[in-house]
Amino acid sequence: MKLYEMAIAPNPRRVRMFMAEKGLLDQVERVELDLQKGENLTPEFITKNPMKKVPVLELDDGTCIPETMAICRFVEESHPETMNLMGETPKEKAEIEKWTRWIEFYFFLPTGMAFQHLSGYFKDRMEPNESWGLNCKNDVEKFFHKLNKHLADNEWIAANRFTVADINAFCTVEFARVVDVRIKDEQTHLQRWFDAMKSRPSADV
After folding, report:
1. What does the alpha-carbon distance between residue 146 and residue 187 come to, in Å, rounded to a whole number?
2. CATH match for 2-78 among 2.60.120.260, 3.30.160.340, 3.40.50.300, 3.40.30.10
3. Which of 61, 171, 174, 202 has CA atoms 20 to 30 A from the CA of 116?
């Protein structure tokens, strides 16, 4: 298998952490792309993912699976013998899916929009809107507060155990540094959880 990625980008990191937690990261060949140089915009790559995004997992038979959570789902279902990260019972699956979608829509997406519209990283292919970027940054700060409040009564984010929801949230918290959003001193519950995440070996992949 091949994993097309940009190592410093948060979405590929979510996949790497997921695979590392399952002990499968050494089974994939990592192919680095430079998004700022537009290496994801070539005709060859577009045949792998028409959305022109990373990550993309290419299977040995040539099948290409784009989208972070689709890749994680494939890996989860393909390796039931490894640690379960997406839910074992219907109730667990629903709880983890709920949090995963909340993190995706209300945390990761505004973080990405704040980065794009405030940094000018992709200004050659989009028109940054500073006002929109600041609005998104404010939403990110609000979600930090929501997570801190939730973690006051929960060791992990979903299902009373470590799951993909924790991986997604952790990568987003770290990514938020690019728009100068960090855990505040008073967000002690979020900091406790973050420290626990940071201590996991998968945090270094």
Report:
1. 10
2. 3.40.30.10
3. 202
Sequence-separated (6 or more) residues with CB below 8 Å from residue 148: 187, 188, 189, 190
Q: Report in angstroms the alpha-carbon separations of 106 from 82, 98, 177.
A: 29, 12, 17
Exposed/middle/buried for residue 85 (C-beta within 10 Å: 0-12, 13-18, 19+): buried
pLDDT tens sequence across 34-63: 999 999 999 999 999 999 999 999 999 999
Alpha helices per DSSP H over 22-129? 43-48, 68-78, 90-103, 109-119
Query: pLDDT tens digits, residue range 169-186?
Result: 999 999 999 999 999 999
pTM over 0.90: yes
Is 136 in contact with 111 (CB distance < 8 Å)? yes
Q: DSSP state, 49? A: -
Cα separation, 114 vs 59, in Å, equals: 33
Ranges of each domain in the chain: 2-78, 90-204
Q: d(Cα 54, Cα 175) in Å, to the nearest integer?
A: 16
- The CATH number assigned to the domain with range 90-204 reads 1.20.1050.10
